[in-house]
Write a structure and sequence with these properties.
The chain is an alpha/beta fold and about 250 residues long. It is built from nine helices and seven strands; from the N terminus they run βαβαβαβαβααβαααβ. It binds acetoacetyl-coenzyme A.
Length: about 250
């Protein structure tokens, strides 16, 4: 297998950590961004304890200039980015009639505008080198909507619109662009949902359980592989049967 350089945004989080671990164990060199340096350093030490050397670079993906600086810092340390996983995401749940403009914009900036902010400085190099793998981590709630998540569902649905446009523009240049749409996975984000609400959600999952971060990372690894070179513009749902749209 050829070693590639991978950038996973939000790599210190629940699903992000599993993706970093998976890509590193496949032999790639992996980097992530951070907003909180102390938390990132602790995470990096934890990864090192597992035998994984992950690069960390400062930069909030909601900020275009900070994102570009973060990408350049990763390139200086590791080299040109071949694999980009737009994974960073936040929730600010509220029913829409109670939602503030701040709750709306924070989610759209971090979950959707970040796709522009981080992919824009990466794409030209991929086009020049005629190889790239880009994966958006969207959500089941971008596909089916969710009570209390008009902001998040709009941003997550937008991520797949981004995927299918970018996939068309770059298909002839050896660059694939795909989306993975996880359902409810056992991470801090899902655990922050009030317990009684979460119990009702889990009751709707045919598999009867939350997903594991590794189950998402497995799919991301598939899309980033050399062998997946003819898979582009796809949206893979991984949700325990919770939503089966097609
Ligand atoms: N369908 C119908 N009615 C619902 C409902 C649903 N799914 N969820 C809540 N309601 C109803 C309640 O029963 C309640 O009704 P009554 O007033 O008649 O009792 C009413 O809505 C409550 O509305 P409020 O505006 O007062 O809601 P709230 O301020 O108490 O909180 C909420 C609402 C923040 C949305 C809360 O229900 C919540 O956190 N829901 C979970 C949202 C969720 O799934 N988030 C996912 C986070 S994880 C993630 O995003 C990862 C991923 O990609 C999957």
């Amino acid at each position: 297998m050829r070693q590639r350089i991978a950038l996973v945004t939000g790599g210190c989080g629940g699903i992000g950590t599993a993706i970093v671990r998976k890509l590193a164990r496949l032999g790639h060199r992996v980097a992530t961004n951070y907003r909180d340096e102390a938390r990132a350093l602790a995470w990096q030490a934890r990864m090192r304890g597992e035998g994984i050397e992950a690069t960390i670079a400062a930069g909030d993906v909601a900020d275009p200039l900070a994102s570009e600086a973060m990408v350049r810092a990763v390139e200086r340390e590791l080299g040109p980015i071949d694999i980009l996983i737009n994974n960073a995401g936040i929730t600010r749940d509220a029913t829409f009639h109670k939602m503030s403009y701040q709750q709306w914009t924070e989610v759209v900036n971090t979950n959707l505008n970040a796709c522009f902010n981080v992919t824009r400085p990466v794409i030209e190099g991929m086009r020049e080198r005629r190889w790239g793998r880009i994966v958006q981590i969207s959500s089941i709630n971008g596909q089916k909507g969710q009570y209390g998540q008009a902001n998040y569902a709009a941003a997550k649905a937008g991520m797949h619109g981004f995927t299918i446009s970018l996939a068309q523009e770059n298909a002839r240049l050896g660059i694939t662009v795909n989306t993975v749409s996880p359902g409810y996975v056992a991470t801090d984000m899902v655990m922050a949902v009030p317990e009684e609400v979460r119990a009702k959600i889990v009751a709707q999952i045919p598999m009867g359980r939350l997903g594991e971060p590794d189950e998402i990372a497995h799919a991301v690894a598939f899309f980033t592989g050399e062998e997946a070179g003819w898979v582009t513009g796809a949206n893979l749902a991984i949700n325990g049967g919770h939503y089966m749209g097609w």
